[in-house]
């Protein structure tokens, strides 16, 4: 898979100011405010910046945290993890491996079969309903 690289101005032209803040500046939307935190319609969640398919609705679960949560990515290599030491904590950041957009964080408190909880900002995603 080829990397997608754009200038900051190109990303700003493509994304809304809120999407840019999350995807390119690593902001976080407030819990229970995102467009997908309580969506359970069948479909695929894509990177808002580059359109890469990242998560399937059948891996989404209600974690009670206020952000869309998934127990695994759609396929290996689509997301990348990096250590995040901001805000005085150590967390694992999740990024789109194609365009390097910030998606959210992953935690080891999810359900089987992976035990993971990919806690992803709605503003980092674009939902494609099944059959579209």
Indicate the topology.
Layout lengths: L7 H7 L2 H7 L19 E5 L5 E4 L3 E2 L7 E2 L8 E6 L6 E6 L5 E6 L9 E4 L4 E5 L3
What does this structure look like?
The model has no long low-confidence stretch (mean pLDDT 96). The longest helix has 7 residues, at 8-14. With 132 residues, the protein is mainly beta. The protein has two helices and nine strands. A hairpin with a 6-residue loop joins strand 5 (79-84) and strand 6 (91-96). It has a single domain, classed as Metal Binding Protein, Guanine Nucleotide Exchange Factor, Chain A.
Question: Could you name the key traits of this structure?
Answer:
132 residues; mainly beta; Metal Binding Protein, Guanine Nucleotide Exchange Factor, Chain A; six-stranded antiparallel sheet; 2 helices; globular
CATH topology: Metal Binding Protein, Guanine Nucleotide Exchange Factor, Chain A
Q: Supply the number of helical segments.
A: 2
Helical proportion?
10-25%
Average of pLDDT: 96
CATH superfamily: Peptide methionine sulfoxide reductase
Short recap of the structure:
Helices cover about 10% and strands about 30% of the residues. With about 130 residues, it is mainly beta.
């Amino acid at each position: 898979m080829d990397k997608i690289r754009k200038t900051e101005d190109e990303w700003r032209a493509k994304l809304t100011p809120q999407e840019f803040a999350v995807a390119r500046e690593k902001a976080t939307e407030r819990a229970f405010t995102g467009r997908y935190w309580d969506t359970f319609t069948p479909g695929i969640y894509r990177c808002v910046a580059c359109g890469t398919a990242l998560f399937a609705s059948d891996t989404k679960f209600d974690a009670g945290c206020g952000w869309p949560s998934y127990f695994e990515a759609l396929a290996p290599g689509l997301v990348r993890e990096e250590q995040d030491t901001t805000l005085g904590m150590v967390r694992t950041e999740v990024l789109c491996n194609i365009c390097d957009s910030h998606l959210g964080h992953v935690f080891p408190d999810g359900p089987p079969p992976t035990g993971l909880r990919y806690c992803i900002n709605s503003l980092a995603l674009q939902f494609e309903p099944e059959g579209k």
